[in-house]
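ok trying again, last paste got cut off:
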Amino acid sequence: MHTIHTLIAGLDAQEVVQNTGKQDVPVLHVAEHTERVLPGSLFIARSGVRRDGAAFIEEAIERGAVAVLCTPETAASLQHLQVRFLVTHDPTGVGAIIAERFYGNPSRNLKLIGVTGTNGKTTISWMLRHLLLQAGVKCGLLGTVVCDDGLKKEQSTLTTPSFCDTSRILQSMVDNGCEVAVMECSSHALDQRRTSALSFEMGVFTNLSGDHLDYHGSADAYLRAKMNLFDQVTGCSVINMDDPASWAVADRSQSRVVSCRLESDAATAWVEILDEQVTGSEFCLHGPWGDAKVVLPMFGRHNAINALQAAVCAYELGIQIQDIVSGLASATAPPGRLERVDGNGAAVFVDFAHTDAALEHMLWSVREVLPKGGNLIVVFGCGGDRDRSKRPRMGHIASTVGDIAVATSDNPRSENPEVILDEVLSGVPQDRLYCIRREVDRRVAIESAIAEAEPCDIVVIAGKGHEQTQILENEVIAFDDKKVAEEAMRKRLAGNGV
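nice, full thing came through this time. structure:
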């Protein structure tokens, strides 16, 4: 059993004894959110982006907290409370270490792979877990779509959970027999040091493009947040060297760098695309294993480099190349990542692309497999209360790469969706205005795009991917792009008398 003294031993924290006696106290739980506090908990009062944990200390005590980790200033202002204060000038950093200790330092008992970058995190993590499982290696997953602790799978609420939740889930993976864990590391989590106490065997950098500037303030700050991961990697860093930011990441890396590239042999490993169809692609993986031809049931240049980086990670973990090849042949796209919607008629895909770079790369990938004479129809939008600078860029890309574009609502949140669409459409060139229309109702936008599609067309519904809700100003409603598309396809068939 952990006690206050064992949890803070050797850390930059000390106990303030006041009206509670000098004896050590057992700690039964750790929590950084008051709703998770149980009797016997240590409450970590860290500062958040929107709220300061110090404001919830009294509530935590009422819920049964026996100790509180906070700053000396906060403890001094709350001397009247009957609780043990552990004081430090860095509640976040010390709290993350305490959480790891409480759960037995699980990141050191797993081979933990962290994946970061603007785009591709989910697909690489999903592919890598699949490759490992197919090769007989039990692997957990912490990501945008799902949390899999080796025993049960749950839909994720955050790309990267809080440090208490992360350590708890990693320990569940250890308990459930996982040897490896793959974890998506968001820029928010890295900036907020939710992963600062973890030990990573491997780090993966995918790419960097404009996103989350509403939070980070600048592209440089966004990159610096991503690079934090590579201070903690002990084994190797698998880096997509086609991205301009990759050189800074490689320089920052404290571990051996394995460089990856698309269609260029100027790297440790590279991928050569041989053929692409709407049903999948064929390519050759070149690397330390030699040359290996792969058939992947996914298309797109972005998925080729995703597959390469997943393959490199698997190889570094000891998986034989023949098992990697067979694993990729049976891989499926993660939910909402160029996920095909079942139905007759035009091919319809749902994709999570919600940045201008992701949208552009994805749409050009779709154009590569567009049947002769077909149109690329794009349904897209931009979220409210998020980076506004990308809105006109999204409008420009959808209207210039797509043949027909429907601008609609994403998650408007507190913003007026019509105002968001005004900003999106401001980026559409004058000579492309004829090919784009606005429809604020996302359901109507999807239905109209599918209704007008010819059999040789491809419809892409971008922005929300796997999400199952839409966030409006005053409510959150059930909304799943894939299900809405399936309903629209059934309506179309019924209307045609099929």
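cool. The chain has a mean pLDDT of 94. Residues 106-329 form a domain with the UDP-N-acetylmuramoyl-L-alanine:D-glutamate ligase fold (CATH 3.40.1190.10).
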